[in-house]
UniProtKB/TrEMBL annotation:
Pfam families to which the protein is assigned, alphabetical: CbiQ (PF02361)
PANTHER family from the UniProt entry: COBALT TRANSPORT PROTEIN CBIQ
InterPro entries in alphabetical order: ABC/ECF_trnsptr_transmembrane, Cobalt_transport_CbiQ
Protein name: Energy-coupling factor transporter transmembrane component T family protein
Keyword RNA-binding carried by entry: no
Entry keyword ATP-binding: no
Record key words, sorted: Membrane, Transmembrane, Transmembrane helix
Annotated transmembrane regions: 12-41, 53-74, 107-128, 229-245
Topology within the bilayer: Multi-pass membrane protein
Subcellular location: Membrane
């Protein structure tokens, strides 16, 4: 649970810094070792369900494999026979294969770092921390929070409209074209409902004195503690250790 209790802003800045550092690595061993380190830290210090983690990680594995495959297939014809790698009976330049492998593993590193942040961070706490530590304007922050809150409501609204059409015998679509026409029919009531919710939210915020002023007080206070600096320290130790080993 260590990762869940970290300051979200420090966690986000650390991950962004690591992504930048990985962009300067063009050999596969360093990102491979750091990928193992990142996944280990995620499961050791964060309460993460491995089944859910694997489910979200699989698309990135497919994308990384596609990048690796296309980079190797379209590599230049090897000129020096001493610097070739034979894969599936075909010869490829060793440098191109290693670069492609490094890029694909880098994609997996970015995915692992992103999933670490997503699975161990509360989005509301992250926005509040950005306002308090990174001076994010409240107008932008609360707009993002409102949008985040509206997404589940929009999904429920679509279901209500869908059921209402079905009761009236309208929603009997079978083909893709008919389903697409139904969704276009949903757009007008969905837009009207979204406008009503936005107006109510704006009126509620104005009635409670929201002006967008940066000098405001917060019910939930976020501070940077000494333990928060352990996370960037641990991740940088892992990165530079992988770099030295490679």
């Amino acid at each position: 649970m260590f990762l869940q209790h970290l300051n979200p802003s420090i966690k986000a800045l650390t991950i962004m810094m690591l992504v930048v550092l990985l962009a300067f690595i063009f050999e596969p061993l360093t990102p491979m070792l750091f990928l193992i380190w990142t996944i280990s830290i995620t499961f050791i210090f964060g309460k993460v369900e491995w089944k859910k983690y694997v489910l979200y990680f699989i698309p990135f594995v497919i994308f990384a494999f596609g990048m690796l495959w296309t980079s190797v297939i379209f590599a230049d014809t090897p000129k020096n026979q001493d610097e070739i790698i034979v894969l599936l009976g075909m010869e490829y330049p060793r440098e191109s294969v290693l670069t492609a492998l490094a890029l694909s593993i880098r994609v997996l590193n970015v995915a692992a770092l992103s999933l670490m942040f997503i699975f161990t961070t509360n989005i509301v706490h992250f926005i509040l921390s950005m306002m308090q530590q990174l001076r994010l304007p409240p107008k932008i922050a609360y707009a993002v929070l409102a949008g985040y809150r509206f997404l589940p409501m929009m999904r429920d609204e679509i279901k209500i409209i869908h059921d209402a059409h079905r009761v009236r015998g309208v929603n009997q679509a079978k083909t893709i074209k008919e389903k697409w026409n139904n969704y276009k029919r949903y757009s007008i009531p969905l837009l009207a409902s979204a406008i009503r919710k936005a107006e109510r939210t704006a009126m509620a915020m104005e009635s409670k004195g929201f002006t967008g002023d940066k000098n405001r007080t917060f019910y939930r206070q976020f501070t940077i503690k000494k333990t928060d600096w352990l996370f960037p320290l641990i991740m940088l130790i892992g990165f530079f250790t992988a770099l030295l080993v490679s």
